[in-house]
Amino acid sequence: MHNVVVGTSGTSLDDVVAVARGGARVELGEDALAALAASRRVIDDLAARTDPVYGVSTGFGALAVRHIDPGLRGRLQRNIVRSHAAGMGPRVEREVVRALMFLRLKTLASGHTGVRPLVARTLADVLNAGITPVVHEYGSLGCSGDLAPLSHCALTLMGEGEAEGPDGTVRPAAELLAAHGIEPLELAEKEGLALLNGTDGMLGMLAMACADLGRLFTSADVTAALTLEALLGTDRVLAPELHAIRPHPGQAASARNMRAVLAGSGLTGHHQDDAPRVQDAYSVRCAPQVAGAGRDTLAHARTVAGRELAAAVDNPVVLLPGDTGPGRVESNGNFHGAPVAYVLDFLAITAADLASITERRTDRLLDKNRSHGLPPFLADDPGVDSGLMIAQYTQAALVSELKRLAVPASADSIPSSAMQEDHVSMGWSAARKLRTAVDGLTRVVAVELCAATRALELRDGLRAQGYVPGAAAEAVIAALRASGVRGAGPDHYLAPDLLLAEEFVRSGALVRAAEAATGPLE
């Protein structure tokens, strides 16, 4: 795992995932250290003046009207961390906390927050030590930053509260810092506020959702192709010229993936057991259009995330001396989470719709009236065996949940801070529900995978005549069976198979198995 260097120009989606999930070490670039020192000089100069400066010599939020004497400013910064560390509910996942810490470090390194280099170094040291603050589910409105989550992280830097060590044990933060030779921070002017005021939690969850959904869209292309093949559908609808006349790039990419998976198949479009089908059902025929629209939405989300990853999100911000005049501190609204919240909600809609069309294909495989010769519910001895009947129930329950999760969080706003913060983004909530939606979509795709591979195995009559699935289908079936997921046969305890199939999709094993035959998929 490579080290991730944090500089003044921001970071990348890949770096966020590497630090959050892969445990990559972080280090501060020389440009970042120089910018940190320069912006701190601006803060020190302003702190020495009598003029009130928000976050430096005043209270916060609706309490910004009070001027704070120099002797109380350290206490002011400690108190904002302690009072704002007011989260409740279940613990947030380790990877989310690491992502938000890394992204806060990214903003500190921009040189627009005014903290001392020591603060950034300490945050990097805590990340590299594998110390993960205990952060709770509730406490962010997605405006003025992910306040409570970031406050719990800042509390750890101060040696207060609780954190999880690299061994997974939760201990007092002071003990963990001492065990790794890290001195607790004594915060100076502006520093407590700078540690709290960013969209880092929602942005970190967006970065990881982008990675997950990229893999899931490709996975869904593979399972859609396997279902088309198992239903003896036609691949003519995937012709490049058909997609060129409606030039959505995501649609074209999904169609290319499906064509690659179906290459060499002896089952597509030739062996209908009833009157020749002029066209397949929407859930099969329109698979590239639906998955492709999701891909284009994901591309937009990545664009927004990229802009945010290049941003310095804080209030107030430090503007260094230059073309804009002398160094100064300015209040702003860049902490508002609307840009991130909107795409988080948009992605939840795509997850719900992709799950919906996936479930419809699964149901078609199980219904003897629509499956073109397959046994009811893909059962070994229908009536004695129920096959995958209840797996589709589980899939349907997941789809229903995904539809509820598609209701936008960003359309809501609850005023806070005595009406000073009277419009908020609810972006943290949008991110939390998107994570649930991504998990649900993974399971939905896994059920289609189980059904499509079993259905292909049950086309033994055609296999006996020499009509066999394509190389990609055979590779996926072999890999799935090697993972422990059982295929066609008498009923057995099904839940373990579904769990293994879920991991097969989540880990990327499905895509890798298909690519062994197709080459790289998109």
UniProtKB/TrEMBL annotation:
It catalyses: L-histidine = trans-urocanate + NH4(+). The keyword Membrane does not apply. Contains an active site 4-methylidene-imidazol-5-one (MIO), which is formed autocatalytically by cyclization and dehydration of residues Cys-Ser-Gly. Pathway: Amino-acid degradation; L-histidine degradation into L-glutamate; N-formimidoyl-L-glutamate from L-histidine: step 1/3. Its EC number is 4.3.1.3. It comes from the Bacteria. The modification 2,3-didehydroalanine (Ser) is found at residue 144. Keywords: Cytoplasm, Histidine metabolism, Lyase. There is a cross-link at residues 143-145 (5-imidazolinone (Ala-Gly)). It is found in: Cytoplasm. InterPro entries: Aromatic_Lyase, Fumarase/histidase_N, HutH, L-Aspartase-like, Phe/His_NH3-lyase_AS. Belongs to the PAL/histidase family. PANTHER family: HISTIDINE AMMONIA-LYASE. This is Histidine ammonia-lyase.
